[in-house]
Design brief:
Four copies of one chain form a homotetramer.
Chain A lengths: L4 E4 L9 E5 L6 H12 L3 E7 L6 E4 L5 E2 L3 E6 L6 E6 L8 H16 L5 E9 L7 E5 L2 H9 L3 E2 L4 E3 L1 H11 L3 E9 L6 H15 L4
Parallel strand pairs in A: 2-7, 2-8, 8-12, 9-10
Antiparallel strand pairs in A: 1-3, 3-6, 4-5, 6-7, 9-12
Helix pairs in contact in A: 1-5, 2-4
């Protein structure tokens, strides 16, 4: 295995799905929010992504079964709006910049094949005194405004690091629109409150029936 | 040399061999156990693997002869069950994740050509008070159970790092089954006792005549 | 995205343009000087360069709009001497040597297509007591002399690190001439004075009408 | 520039030349010895090797002329035994293992084209109380003995790091014989004495007329 590869478990019937991405990160806010969404929409695991830039170990479950770390794509076909929810065990290591670009490019290739035209990446925004704010950055001014009208605040940090940022940046290059939504968090430990708050915002703006 | 390469010394006559892998690691348990197995089965060196991800030095023996670090494959054709025993001087450096995947992929390609359908990786499991336990992780629940019935305990660590883990993870991806057997060890120094214990377990479950 | 790529915004009409390069670096002297030149020559952004070796984040502006870090090429067609001015958000990380060579090679490929035969790279030279000196290093003795006659001093540092140096080194390999001009600076903070001094020197030797 | 490349300055008339390699390293013993040999044999620079794994700066000489760091190949055609002497400004960074293998492979490809069948790499061996010993490691026992009979001692270090070791290791893989000769040195500073001692040994065993 010299490059990321995709394993399709089954072929879902998706029409112009929105990609929702929540990977491990600050306070695990994004990953937990994505997990909550997967549960509430009864989304089904349909694809796994493996990469040689993921850590060089295998994960062992309680029954002694091993598997390499991976990204997981879940399909939600039951809503008015089809969703692909991306979550995973890990991100490539911070310093492996090329790997970040490579894996994010692979993800966008994959979802583009399903006609995905919009992506939402989820993460945490570090604050010393977080007040349950949702911050937004977007691929265009119009989209940023749409989200501020729905209650989010423009993200004033200068940059967004990791998959949440790179996916958005690369999507924009390809003509795919999107937003990054960040739940305010101290980020020192797993922050389920911030994740739940972000999840609820997401459900509202996506008009999901749960 | 830009990628791992294989040097075949002679062509052994192997039928669906089991791969046994013991490389340098915690307490050198795996490597020593593999060495003991090579000795007792009179297995013969038939292939060397070199890689540009191995350290950038040459090894010098007592007579001043140099050679690059390498992996070595030994063939045991004298048992009911043919074996390929993999051992080596080194592993790729911890932080070179891609190299781990690349070398392990090369190993699996190589043994697959001989019809290998099962692999056993050997290593050490760190414990503050090791009690000569053998731990097991496997590619399926059935295999894990087979080994617990033979006296191993399910490995409760969350991950297995390095070749012992990656080989198993990549094997599973290719539809090859396998187990990782870990001898309990303090791991601070070379642990010949743990290695011998692991070796004896291995001989018993492989039903090897020595 | 696995390698640097170029996005052409419009095709300027340039005849044997001189490349002026000012990227982030010591005291930001080079980048600011390049910015001043872009402003005063009313140069227009015509090309962007993106690279997977640039940092793995996206930049967010005041309105929440994100974009990946990039290099920017500006075209100045209004002078007797056509200019391509290269500036950017970042440089590849210090330790990623291959990325430096790769991106600089890409830049030279790009400007060579416009018939560029001369390059000027801009930067800062660290001094404990800077005295508004302009230092020069060049691809040939003749060019170095030309610039010392115009008031620059031979650079006595032993090496020039990063794009300012590599661009010049690679240009020389390709038979393209050039100089590196370094404004003396303490380099601890952004040094607008040194940048302005360097800019004025540049305008004078390029005989630019502003 | 994405890989090492060779620039031929002129085509020397060499018959089965011996490669002598002295690059920067411990006490700079090898590089200085190679330099002395170049001077005394009036060897001429005929080829340069550049690599994107060399440091990302350019070197500036006293007249302000810049050039990228490089390896240099000198040809000595005036002796009974033709020589290619390899020296250089740098080695790839310690941690870039792949670069070491890649550059050394390129060197061996290059000298093999001239019919080179034997290589001598030069370096320093660290000792707290060096006694002007010359140590040897070789690609075969016979060659090691040849050199011990001429006054060298078998090297008892376990490994030889960097180009001196890798060149020898890769040469052996290709069926080219060779030795590494190490001058004993404290290695804390440039050690001209050790280098001169190594150079004299080299001249004697190569039967060079100076």
């Amino acid at each position: 295995m010299n490059e990321p590869y995709i394993r399709l478990l089954y072929q879902p019937d998706l029409e112009n799905p929105t990609l929702i991405c929540g990977l491990p990160g600050l306070g695990n806010v994004g990953k937990i929010a994505a997990h909550l969404l997967t549960e509430s929409t009864k989304a089904k695991l349909f694809t796994e992504l493996y990469s040689p830039s993921f850590p060089d170990y295998v994960l062992i479950d309680d029954e002694g079964i091993c598997r390499p770390p991976r990204y997981e794509f879940y399909a939600s076909e039951t809503q008015d709006r089809d969703l692909i929810i991306l979550t995973g065990d890990v991100q490539p290591p911070m310093e492996d910049i090329l790997a970040h670009y490579e894996v994010c490019g692979k993800v966008l290739d994959f979802v583009a094949d399903y006609g995905c035209r919009f992506i939402v990446t989820l993460g945490g925004a570090m604050e010393s005194k977080p007040e349950k704010e949702i911050y937004v950055a977007a691929t265009s001014q119009k989209i940023a405004q749409d989200f501020t009208e729905k209650g989010a605040a423009i993200y004033k940090g200068e940059r967004i690091i990791g998959a949440s940022g790179i996916l958005l940046g690369l999507a924009k290059e390809r003509g795919i629109d999107g937003v990054c939504l960040l739940g305010s968090t101290r980020g020192l430990t797993v922050d389920k409150d911030s994740a739940f708050h972000l999840y609820k915002f997401l459900v509202r703006i996506l008009e999901i029936n749960i």
